[in-house]
Structure formats: structure tokens, C-alpha cells
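Q: What would this chain look like folded?
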Amino acid sequence: MATKVRKPLNRSIVIICAIFIGLLCIISSILLYLVYTRNMYKRYEMQLLSMVNYVERHIDHDDLSKCADTFEKSEKYEELQKFLNDLVDGYDDVHYVYIMKVADVSDPVQIYEVCCGNTQDEIENHPEMVLDLGDGEEDWYSMKEAAKFREIQEGSKDTYITNKSIWGVDYTLARPLIDSTGKHFALLCADVDIAEINSSIYRNIFINIFFIVDAGFIFIALAILWMRKNVTTPLKKLENYVTQFAETSSGKRDPDELQYIPPEIHTENEVESLANAYAKLSNDMRDYVISIAEAERETKGLKEHVSEMNAIAYKDGLTHVKNKNAYEEKKMLLEKELKENGTIEFGIVMADINSLKAINDIYGHDKGDEFIKGACKIICDTYSHSSIYRVGGDEFVVLLQGRDYANRDHLIKVARDIFDAIMHDTEKKAWDRYSMALGMSIWQSGDNFDVVFSRADQNMYEEKAKIKQTFKIE
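A: My prediction, written as C-alpha cells:
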């Protein structure tokens, strides 16, 4: 029978390809995330820098410094405010453009609005969102955020930071503004919404992953088609032919029944080589079987003669069970196996015919032989899966192994019940009232063969003594 394939090659290929595509997506996602994050932030940094440079060119630092100190608007301030409003109205990529003043640590407000670009929609429809010069609230920024801005304002270089305020989380370029006296009076800031940056990153990643997955599925489809054409289908075809040949040739000895017809496989790869190799192997095997058959025919006569001699040498002439020679040889084999392995599962039933001498003396040896054969047949029928040896005129040994060993207690009870019923059947003739005493022993750790035999023999003699008290040939 053909062995069922637990892991078909086609399924394994699909699983491996799917795992490959999955790993490719994971690795690509990580790499793309790192690359796009770096590139997107670099892009927005350049955009913020361009915006801040453009705005600063429209600032009068000394005038704005005075406005930041007094919180009073000047004409140039109003021009700057209008410029920022127009700028943010026409520029969607930047979240906020504003100028703020970071106060001393002792000031509870800490950060004040100086100037902020507002859209026309905010001015007309959401005036509560419009910030004016000097506006400030304690809850706009945390103390930690305010400290960061204070440090930047006191410095002299542009700084990119991620800051969190009541308006959300932004990526900010902050530039300190310095008047002609060298006073650091405010920060010029431009913000981009972090969510917008992440959205751009994820959008680009998803687009790339989509193309990777599509390319992966196309690759899997092409790989499967190629594998089916050049590997799996030819292999399946070869498997079917080989399996069919194995099933039809199993147990066959006639070389004419061992004809293997190879399938047509032209893949020009290892599969075709395998098919050709198997075809050659099957032909070589057939040639070998033919040579074996010829050798068997030449030695058949000798084997039959040897077999016949062995049968005569190891068979009891009267009962046709095995004789003492066979018993001695089997004993030697068991002793050798026991010596090599240290353990073996077997048992011995010792069987001795009762009242054989009386049958011979009263009714003659012919009746005595019938008495022996009848008793032996009961033993043979009962222990049909065991080797039975006649080791003396009225003594038999049953070697228990396998199934009879497993059922030993039941079988000896069956045998004893049969003999008890027959020997007490007074309607039968004396030589038909078969009687046997049975004793059984099994191998136990530390025993040798003779110990097991002696125990069985002792048990048999104990039963024989009991039978003599109730059974007598007259």
C-alpha cells in the first residue's frame, strides 16, 4: 500500500513563498519606515527653513523687539501681521508660523504671543482662535516645553524640536531673534503637524508594501506554475508510476510480471534524471530476479533433499510433532538469546501421559500408541501457536511464546478441563480416555532455561500425583 504524503510539495512551496513574502513585507516596512521618516523629516526641515528665512527677511528686528517689550503695535508690526496672514492663507503645508516671546522663569505665563499668521477663515469665522500681541496663558505649554524654548531663545542657532501644546503635537523650527543691541527678544517659529508627517510616511509605506505584495503574488504564481511544469507534476507522475509498479509487483517472483514501463518525462533537469535512474534500477532488479530464479532452480533439488532430511531428523515418527533433537536445538538457541539479551519472554508446559504402562500391559502397545496420539492431538489443538516436542515415551514439552504465552493461564485451564472430562467418561474405551498431567512455568528475572523447565516439571508431578488418586485404567 502506498504511503500517504503528509506534506505535499505544492503546499510546501506555497507556504514557503507566503512566509518569504510576509518576511519581505515586515523587513521592507521597517526599512521603508526608517528611510521615509528620515527623508520626510529632512524634507519638512528644508521647507520650514525656507519659510523661516523668507519670514525673517520681512522683520525689522529693532522695531519688533520694542513691540515685544511694550506689547504695543507699530506700523511695521501691522505690516508684518498682514504679511503672515497672507502667507499662511496661501500655504497649506505649514501648520503655524508665529513669533513668541519666552519670559523669565519667574513669570507664571512664561510664553507670550508676539505675532502669529492667521487664515482669513479664522479671522472671520473663529475670532476666538486669533491670537494678538501680548496674549499668553499658563496652560499653553508645560514648564518643560517652556524651558526648552527659553534655552533656544537664549542661544544663537536654529533648532528643530518636537513640542506639545494645547494646539497639538508639532515638529517645530525655532530661530532666536536678536536686535541690534544683541538682545534675544523672541523666537521665530514654523510648525508642521506631526500627524501630517506620519500620515505622509505611512501613506508612502502602504503604497510600497502594496506593490511588494502584488509583486510577491505574481512571483508566487509564476514560481508555482514553473514548479508544477518542471518539478511537482513530473514528480507526481513518477510517483504514481512507481507506486503502481510497487503494488502490482509486490510478492511476484515471475520476472515477466516485474515489467516497469517508465513515464514520459522530458523536463531536462534532475527529475528526468531520477526517472531514468529508476527505470534503469527496475531493469537491473528484474535481471537480478532472473539470475536468482535460475540459481534457485539449480539448487531446488538439493534444497528439497536437505529439507526432507531435516524434517525426518527433527520430527517424531508416531505423533508427527517435533522430537527431542529439535527440542535440544531450540533449547540451545533460547539459552544463547537469553545470554546475549539478558531477558526473554517464554514459558514451558510440561505434559506427561498418565497410565500409559497400564494401557500397554492390558491392551497392547498398539492401543498404547493410539493413547499417545490421542493425548498429543489434544495438546496440539489447544496450543496451536506453540512448538510442541515429544521428549520421551510419554513426555511432551510445549514452548510458549507469542499469542499462546499471552493466553497461557486460559489455555492450560482449557487443556486440563478437556482431559478431565475425557478421562472420566466411562462410556469410552480405556485407550480413548486420554489423560495427561500438566505443569507450567514462565521465565523470571535471574532464571536460566533449566530453572524454568524444572519448575514446570515439578508442577507437572504435583498434578500427576493428584490425578493418580482419582484415575485408574481397568
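The chain has a mean pLDDT of 84.
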